[in-house]
Write a structure and sequence with these properties.
Oligomer: single chain
InterPro entries: DmsR-like_N, HTH_bacterioopsin, WH-like_DNA-bd_sf
Keywords: Transcription, Transcription regulation
Protein name: HTH bat-type domain-containing protein
Helix content: 25-40%
Number of helices: 7
Radius of gyration: 22 Å
Organism: Halorubrum xinjiangense
Number of domains: 2
Strand order of the largest sheet: 6-7-1-8
Largest sheet: 4 strands, antiparallel
Order of helices and strands: EHEEHEEHEEHEHHH
Distance between the termini: 38 Å
Length: about 230
C-alpha cells in the first residue's frame, strides 16, 4: 500500500555511516566513580546505573576496595558483593542534572561502555554521525573542565571493497610507553632484519633491557586489545 514501484529495503547490503567514539571527560567533580578512580590503582570498570523516580542507583567494580573505601567523594555503598579478586559497589544518590552520563543519554545516545581511571571518565559511544558527537561535546560544556575525543572508528564497509578503518586510542598508553614505542620504531627495532636490538634501544632510552621489554610488552598489549576488539 503506497509503496508500489519502490524496492523493498530490508537493510541487506547497506552500510551504516556511523562512528564509534572514545570520549574522555576531565573534571567531573560530582561523579563518585571518578572520585573512586583517583585513589584506585587501575581503572574502575563494570559501571552500570538505573533511574527510579528521583533516585540514581549505580554500580561499579574495583580490585582495590581499600583504596575505594578511603577515597573522598564516594557515597557509602548500599550493598557490596565480594567476588574474590574484585568487589562490586552499589550506591544511591539523588538524580543529578550535571551528571555527564545522564546528559549524554538525554540526547538519545546510549553509552556502550564506561570506565574511570586517574580521575578521568572514559566513555565508548556508537553514534550515527559526527554531528551527534559535536552535540555531546557542546552539551558537556560547563559540566566538565575538558572533553577529549580520544579516537574515532568509522563503520566498516560491507561488500564494496573498502577497508575497515580503525584509529587506535593512544590515550591508553602512558607517556613513557609512547616514548618507548617511538624510539623503538625510529631506531628500526620492528624492521626485519632489525636495525637495532633491545639493548641498543634500551641504552638510547637510558633504561635496562628488562625495563624496555616490560614497557614494550605492556604498550603492545594495550594497542592490540584496542585494534582487535570486536565492535
Amino acid at each position: 500500500m503506497g509503496t508500489e514501484g519502490k524496492p523493498a529495503d530490508d537493510g541487506a547490503g547497506t552500510t551504516p555511516g556511523g562512528v564509534r567514539a572514545g570520549v574522555a571527560i576531565h573534571g567531573t567533580g560530582n561523579c563518585p566513580v571518578v572520585a573512586a578512580s583517583t585513589a584506585h590503582d587501575g581503572p574502575i570498570t563494570g559501571v552500570t546505573w538505573t533511574h527510579a523516580g528521583d533516585t540514581h542507583t549505580e554500580e561499579f567494580r574495583a580490585r582495590d576496595p581499600d583504596a575505594v573505601d578511603a577515597a573522598e567523594g564516594v557515597p557509602s555503598p548500599a550493598s557490596v558483593v565480594d567476588l574474590g579478586d574484585e568487589r562490586v559497589y552499589r550506591y544511591e544518590r539523588p538524580r543529578d542534572g550535571k551528571c555527564a552520563c545522564r546528559i549524554i543519554e538525554e540526547l538519545d545516545c546510549p553509552i556502550a561502555d564506561v570506565r574511570a581511571e586517574d580521575g578521568v571518565l572514559v566513555l565508548t559511544l556508537h553514534l550515527p554521525d559526527l554531528e551527534r558527537l559535536r552535540d555531546i561535546v557542546s552539551a558537556l560544556d560547563g559540566v566538565a573542565d575538558r572533553v577529549e575525543v580520544r579516537y574515532l572508528v568509522e563503520g566498516a564497509a560491507r561488500g564494496d571493497g573498502a577497508s575497515d578503518r580503525t584509529l587506535v586510542d593512544r590515550g591508553r598508553l602512558t607517556d613513557r610507553q609512547c616514548e618507548v614505542l617511538r624510539t623503538a620504531y625510529r631506531m628500526g627495532y620492528f624492521e626485519r632484519p632489525r636495525d637495532a636490538n633491545a639493548s641498543a634501544v634500551a641504552e638510547a632510552l637510558d633504561i635496562s633491557p628488562s625495563t624496555f621489554a616490560e614497557h614494550l610488552a605492556t604498550a603492545q598489549r594495550k594497542l592490540l586489545a584496542e585494534t582487535l576488539a570486536e565492535n
